[in-house]
Amino acid sequence: MPVIKPVKGKSPQIPDDCFIAENATIVGEVSMGNQCSIWFSAVVRGDVNFIKMGNKVNVQDGAVIHGTYKTSPTTIGNNVSIGHNALVHGCTIHDNVLVGMGSIIMDNCIIESNSIIAAGAVITKNTVVEAGSIYAGVPAKKVKDVSPELVSGEINRIANNYIEYASWFKE
């Protein structure tokens, strides 16, 4: 069974159509939209600040979502994929974003819509990723614009695939 527990009187809010893996951890002030999935060994820790997720958010294996006490909550829009072993901390991610495997997004960053954070990228504190951009590197910098083909072929495809994958575990 996943670890889903209240912290300081605040309990995770998880719609019935979400998939939560058996060894995922979700604690504290976490609210999730519809068709979300939290995968194996992922941690969503709303103990020191709130975490709000929109619809169709997938948090893949080993990813960690957290915030900073009293200063930086985490807000994630709709249709967002958080790749394996990514760290999303005290930031805002708008709609239609792909956060690559092993990437790090630090406090007070804003990732605008239709953007891709490349695998292994480190988005340093207070960075604003402009809408429709691909950021890569350490520290991450803009490397190019996201084409309409990448929005449909990667961002939307991955988010939709994870809804399908989650259905396999509900059978």
Can I get a quick summary?
By secondary structure, the protein is mostly beta strands. It contains 1 helix and 19 strands.
Plain-language structure description:
With 171 residues, this protein is mostly beta strands. The protein is built from one helix and 19 strands. Strand 18 (133-137) and strand 19 form a beta hairpin. The longest helix is centred in the last third of the chain and has 23 residues, at 148-170. The protein is globular, with a radius of gyration of 15 Å. The two termini are 16 Å apart. The relative contact order is 0.12.
Roughly what is the average pLDDT, rounded to an integer?
Answer: 97
Topology as a string of helices (H) and strands (E)? EEEEEEEEEEEEEEEEEEEH
Helix-and-strand structural type: mainly beta
Tell me the β content: 35-45%
State the distance separating the first and last CA atoms.
Answer: 16 Å
List keywords for this structure.
mainly beta; 8-stranded mixed beta sheet; 19 strands; 1 helix; 11-stranded parallel beta sheet; 171 residues; single chain
Task: Detail the topology: elements first, then pairings.
Blueprint: E1 3-5, E2 19-20, E3 25-31, E4 37-38, E5 43-53, E6 57-59, E7 64-66, E8 74-76, E9 80-82, E10 87-89, E11 92-93, E12 97-99, E13 104-105, E14 110-111, E15 116-117, E16 122-123, E17 128-129, E18 133-137, E19 140-145, H1 148-170
Parallel strand pairs: 1-3, 2-4, 3-5, 4-6, 5-7, 5-8, 6-9, 7-10, 8-11, 9-12, 10-13, 11-14, 12-15, 13-16, 14-17, 15-18
Antiparallel strand pairs: 18-19
